[in-house]
Design a protein that fits this description.
Layout: H1 10-17, E1 19-22, E2 26-28, H2 34-44, E3 47-51, H3 57-71, H4 75-79, E4 92-95, E5 106-107, E6 110-117, H5 134-159, H6 166-170, E7 177-185, E8 194-195, E9 197-200, E10 206-211, E11 217-221, E12 224-228, E13 235-239, H7 241-246, E14 256-258, E15 266-274, E16 280-281, H8 285-291, E17 299-300, H9 301-309
Parallel strand pairs: 1-12, 2-3, 5-8
Antiparallel strand pairs: 3-13, 4-6, 6-7, 7-15, 9-14, 10-13, 10-15, 11-12, 11-14, 16-17
Helix pairs in contact: 2-5, 3-5
């Protein structure tokens, strides 16, 4: 593999060397103060882990099984599900292995995208037919995750002084999109010169993520990078851009990145909870009325997404 593909910038090398370890907030969803704790974590960190979250361990392990088995398939089989750029959709299989990114760092991953909900957005034709049980595992996991997501919205909404259902409604109600992604980060010969995913905040409202046992998630706070200590069996919740906008900046979208290993395969299963493309998101009117000024523009999600992907001003 040509060495030129792996030449990082000084900033990226310096950032990689200055990483600290941290345990992000862990919230027991069965506790009476779960709501207040997630509000505090969303204001201070933009990320937290939840335990006793109501998603059965069996559903989590089965989702992991079918994900592992999909990426173990021959490349020709995975390529049958490749993203079709002409379709205008982001669903399907892709890979960034052996590709350059700006700044010289490699992005070292394979991935699979498909929608889980609402029914009108689900196209089972893009879901893998192999391994056996793939569809059933995803649908079973989502049934529990949907309930958890609603609880998260309710707690975060109440923390802003809104009705419990206000946040979900502001993002589209029953039309909110749940986009599943599987990240597959195989062993990398030069992990110090590669990202699994480069630093970013998520476009979504929330990202609800299950990782495997291999560490690699890092978050930024106070201009420092921190390795996230994962609690086995927990689900990680990221605050995304749309919640930061809706809250008028009270909740913070977390800047994060992932690293790769030269020995172990890391995987993660994030579900991006997004408004419909035509839905307009802006600071909630009740919050603006209390604070006197909107800090963000209201715009359609598709326009926000286009600007962010193309690095245009919002």
């Amino acid at each position: 593999m040509p060495g030129a593909e792996f030449m990082p910038s000084d900033h990226e090398l310096h950032g990689a060397a200055m990483v600290h370890s941290v345990e992000i907030p862990v919230i027991d969803m069965s506790s009476n103060n779960a709501g207040s704790l997630m509000v505090q974590a969303s204001m201070e960190w933009g990320i937290f882990q939840v335990v006793n979250h109501g998603v059965p361990a069996s559903a989590m392990s089965e989702l992991q099984r079918v994900g592992r088995e999909f990426f173990a398939l021959p490349q020709e089989e995975k390529q049958r599900h490749a993203i079709d750029p002409s379709s205008g959709k982001a669903e399907g299989y892709g890979s960034t292995l052996k590709r350059d990114v700006p700044g010289g760092m490699m992005t070292w991953s394979e991935f699979l995208f498909h929608n889980l909900a609402p029914p009108s957005a689900v196209d089972h034709a893009v879901w893998p037919q192999k391994p056996n049980g793939y569809r059933e595992a995803n649908e079973a996991y989502f049934a529990h995750l949907h309930t958890l997501t609603r609880r998260l919205f309710e707690g975060l909404s109440a923390g802003l002084g809104l009705e419990e259902g206000a946040m979900e409604e502001a993002f589209g109600g029953d039309d909110v999109v749940f986009l599943q992604k599987i990240n597959f980060y195989p062993p990398c010969p030069h992990p110090e010169l590669a990202h699994g995913v480069a630093p970013h905040t998520d476009l979504s409202t929330l990202t609800v993520l299950m990782p495997n046992e291999v560490p690699g998630l890092q978050v930024s706070r106070d201009e420092r990078w921190y390795d996230v200590k994962y609690v086995p069996g927990a689900i990680i919740v990221h605050i995304g851009d749309q919640i930061e906008i809706l809250s008028n900046g009270r909740y913070k979208a977390v800047l994060h990145r992932t690293t790769v290993s030269n020995e172990k395969t890391r995987m993660s299963w994030p579900v991006f909870v997004e408004p419909p493309m035509e839905h307009v998101v802006g600071p909630h009117p009740q919050i603006v009325a209390g604070e006197g000024q909107a800090k963000y523009k209201a715009k359609k999600f598709k326009d926000y997404k286009y600007c962010k992907i193309n690095k245009l001003p919002q």
